[in-house]
Amino acid sequence: MNLLVTGSNGFLGKNLIARINATDAGDVLPFDVLDSYDKLEESIKKADFIFHLAGVNRPLKNSEFYKGNSKLTETIIKIIEENNLKIPIVFSSTTQVGNGSDYAISKEMAEKALQQYETQTGANIFIYRFPGIFGKWSRPNYNTVVATFCNNIACGLPIEIRAPELELTLFYVDDAVNLLLETLNEQKVFDVAPIYKTTLGALAEMIKSFASEDKKLEIGDLSDPLTQKLYATYLSFLPEDKITYSLTTHKDDRGSFTEFLHLPKHGQVSVNVSKPDIIKGDHWHDTKHEKFLVVSGQGVIKLRNLNSTEILEYYVNADKLEVIDIPPGYTHSITNLGETDMVTIIWASEIFDKENPDTFYEKV
After folding, report:
1. Which of 16, 47, 262, 269 could be stapled to 4 by a disulfide with Cβ–Cβ 3.0 to 4.6 Å?
2. pLDDT for the residue numbered 43
3. 128 in catalytic set
4. What integer is the mean pLDDT of 115-130?
5. DSSP-assigned beta bridge partners for residue 134
6. Catalytic residue among 37, 66, 103, 196
7. In 10 A of CB 7, how many CB atoms?
8. Taking the CA of residue 210 as centre, how many other CA atoms within 13 Å lie in the half-sphere pointing to its CB?
C-alpha cells in the first residue's frame, strides 16, 4: 500500500514512518510543512491510505493554527474530491477539543470537514483525540512537558514547576503508533489506550530519579508501565557524554570482579574474570543464591552441600551457554581450565552488603 503521512518530520510522524519502514507495512509518501501543495496533490493521487498527522500547536501567530490544522485538512479533502478519489483517512486530533482555544477550534474544524467528507463519499474516516503524547524524538518546549523535563534534567538544565498538583494525561508514542497501524489493518476505530495519569510534580520527581541513577549501578523498579516508558524517553534525551560511564573493577592476581547492575527487587549482576588455572570462590551463602554463566573461556564449577562430602562438578565453556544454579548452603568454586581468561556473568539474588555479606569461607 502507498501510505501518505502528513507531518512526516514531526514527532508522531517520525515514529510512525520508522515502524512502517521496519515492518514493511507499506510504502511511505511523506509530506511535511515545507513541502508544496503540488507535492501533496501528487502524493494523494498515489495514496491508498492517509495518516493525517500534521498539525500546528505552538505557532507565533494564532492564524497559523487554522492554516496548519483546518485549512490543510480542507485542502486534502478538496484534492481528493477533485480527482474523484475515495481514500481512508486517520486524523490525529486532540483531547483539547472543546476548551475554546484556537488550537482546539482549528482541530475541531478539521474533524467536521472530515466527517462531512465521510458522509458525502462513504470513505472511512478515523478520528483520534489524543492526550499528551510522549516518547523518543519529541521536541522540548514544543511537543510535551515530558520532553522538556527529560531534556533539561538529562542535560543538567533547570526545570520550572508552577503547579506541581496539576494533573496530566499521557499517551506513549509507541502505543499511538500501534493504534494507527491497527486502524490501517482493521479499518476500524480503536480505543486510545493505555492512558496514564500523573501530576506535574510526580512527573518531575520520577525523571529526576532517573538522572540520579544514570551513572550508578542501580536501576529502579521498572515494573510499572508508565515508569518504564518514561525511563525509555529520558534515555533518548541523554547527551553524548552521558551515554557511556565507567564501572569500578576490583583486580588482583586471580583476575577481576565488576558489579554491573543493582536491581533493588531483583538482586545484582556482576562480571567475574578468572585467570588461567585460578580457583575463585570456596564460600557459601545462608540465603543468597546465584546463577553462573560462562560466556568466554572454559572451566569447572564445583558445589558441595555443607551436610555432604559429595562434590558436584559441572564443566562449562562458552561454546555451550549453560546456567549453573548455586543454591544456598552449598559451598562452591569456579576454576579456569583454559589458557585464556574465563569470563563469567553472575547474578545474585541480593545486592552485596558489606555490613551483612552472607558469605562464609569453606573449601569445596
Report:
1. 47
2. 98
3. no
4. 96
5. 172
6. 103
7. 23
8. 27
pLDDT at position 298? 97
57 has pLDDT over 80? no
Residue 100 backbone phi and psi in degrees, to 5: 85, 0
Sheet of strand 167-172, all strands in order from the earlier edge strand to the far edge: 132-134, 167-172, 196-199
- φ/ψ region of 72 (left if φ > 0, alpha if ψ in -120 to 50, else beta) reads alpha
Range(s) of the chain covered by CATH 3.40.50.720: 2-235
- For CATH 2.60.120.10, the residue range(s) in the chain are 249-361
SS3 per residue for 335-353? EECCCCCEEEEEEECCCCC
What cell was used for 156? 543538567
Confidence at residue 215, expressed as pLDDT on a 0 to 100 scale: 58
**The domain 2-235 is classified under which CATH number: 3.30.470.10, 3.40.50.720, 3.90.600.10, 3.40.1280.10?**
3.40.50.720
Three-class secondary structure of residue 152 per DSSP: helix
CATH 3.40.50.720 at 249-361, yes or no: no
* Burial annotation 28-62 (CB, 10 A radius, 16+ → b, else e): bbbbeeeeeeeebbebbeebebbbbbbbbbeeeee
Environment class of 209 (CB within 10 Å of its CB; exposed 0-12, middle 13-18, buried 19+): middle
Taking the C-alpha atoms of residue 89 and residue 80, their distance in angstroms, rounded to an integer, is 11
Determine the residue type at 269: V
pLDDT tens digits, one per residue of 221-255: 888 999 999 999 999 999 998 898 889 999 999 99
The tens digit of pLDDT for each residue in 27-56 reads 999 999 899 999 999 999 999 999 999 987
Distance linking the first and last C-alpha atoms of the chain: 65
Task: Supply 278's cell numbers.
Answer: 585460578
**Which residue from 51, 7, 47 is spatially nearest to 27, judged by alpha carbons?**
47
Contact (Cβ atoms closer than 8 angstroms) between residue 174 and residue 135? yes
Which one, of 106, 128, 147, lies nearest residue 10 by Cα?
147
